[in-house]
Amino acid sequence: LPHATMRTTHAITIDAPPHAVWPWLVQQGWGRAGWYTYRWVDQLLFPANGPSADRILPEHQQLQVGDRIPDGPPEADCWFAVEQLDVARSLVLRSTTHIPVAWRRHRHVAMEWVWSWHLTEPAFGRTRLVQRNRIILEPSWFEVAFLAAVVPADFVMARSHLRGIRRRVHDMPAPA
């Protein structure tokens, strides 16, 4: 989103190669493996979402461009579409559904959100995982209200998300 009004970038280094990190990214989502955030964050902000997975879920490893990744119960009609996918290198999701359904229909508010993860291997066997958010919000009153609420929360969510991935990767037994 070249004209995004909200831009955040977060990163973490993981002591494992990108191919060991990748399975955790492709299984993310509501009703899938979760978002790997601190459990207290999930319980506070998303009480209906169960705990994030602590293992690789084979049934969620086949992600393709165009697939939908839920970000809430079905009645919320909130999801990401897989826009780009380069195995063990990058995953790019896009959403226009992260505002309440009634607002989308009657209040003329809009959001376009691109959420991405980029994996590099700066040293053999280590992954630099960079997470980026790019968002456009309309109209301006909605942008101001959203940014005031979300920017502080983004720091906590992104930090817990990236640390959750790192912990899970590090806790996995080494292949025999």
Task: Describe it.
The chain has 176 residues and is an alpha+beta fold. It is built from four helices and six strands. Strand 2 (68-70) and strand 3 (79-86) form a beta hairpin. Helix 1 (18-26) packs across helix 4.
* Strand fraction: 25-35%
Query: Runs with pLDDT <50, length 5+?
Result: none
The SSE string, one letter per element, is EHHEEEHEEH
Question: Which structural class is indicated by helix and strand composition?
Answer: alpha+beta
Radius of gyration: 16 Å
Mass-distribution shape: globular
Question: Got a strand count?
Answer: 6
Strand order of the largest sheet: 1-6-5-4-3-2
Distance between the termini: 43 Å
Average pLDDT for all residues: 91
Keywords:
176 residues; alpha+beta; 6 strands
List the helices and strands and how they pair.
Elements: E1 6-14, H1 18-26, H2 39-45, E2 68-70, E3 79-86, E4 90-95, H3 101-106, E5 110-120, E6 127-138, H4 140-171
Antiparallel strand pairs: 1-6, 2-3, 3-4, 4-5, 5-6
In a few lines, what is going on in this structure?
By secondary structure, this protein is an alpha+beta fold. It has helices spanning 18-26, 39-45, 101-106, 140-171; strands at 6-14, 68-70, 79-86, 90-95, 110-120, 127-138.
